[in-house]
Amino acid sequence: MRGAIADMVLAMADGRLEAPAPDTADPVQRWEWFADLYTHPRWGLVAAVSAFPTDLGDVVADACRAIPHQHGGDALIAERWGWLAHRARTQLKQTVSVAELHAWSAITFTALDADDHLHGRPFGGTEAVTTVFSAVLAAQPPALAGELIAAAVDGWSARCLQEAGWMA
After folding, report:
1. pLDDT score, position 160
2. How far apart are CA 29 and CA 163, in angstroms?
């Protein structure tokens, strides 16, 4: 990874720059944006990483959207995340590209965040966000990757402005 966008992602990963969707954010908006990281038609993994399966992106997104409405006693959503984590770990062993490696790793990090949320533990989400961004950087030419990552960050900012009562 090289360039300004890669430097920004690394700054998020090492804590010099706050990643979008911090743990202080509204949980519903946060998990909706995490879902978009996988399925947004312009900047999600299904659009940015051609080898990432659209149907799996939909499953991950649905699981993300279910999280803020669940509590520790919901075994079904925990089982779904367990299955997703297992699938991602299995695919990590078979991956053929750096972009796929990051995409499957993002699912494992999101599954860990889901488990923390379901058990009332705080979580940062930084690893999931920066790993998705790393997949985009690995899959796309630098200029396009920068546009897609900027669009994802703008997507988070738009959610925050909308929550504060600002309309576009």
Report:
1. 85
2. 9
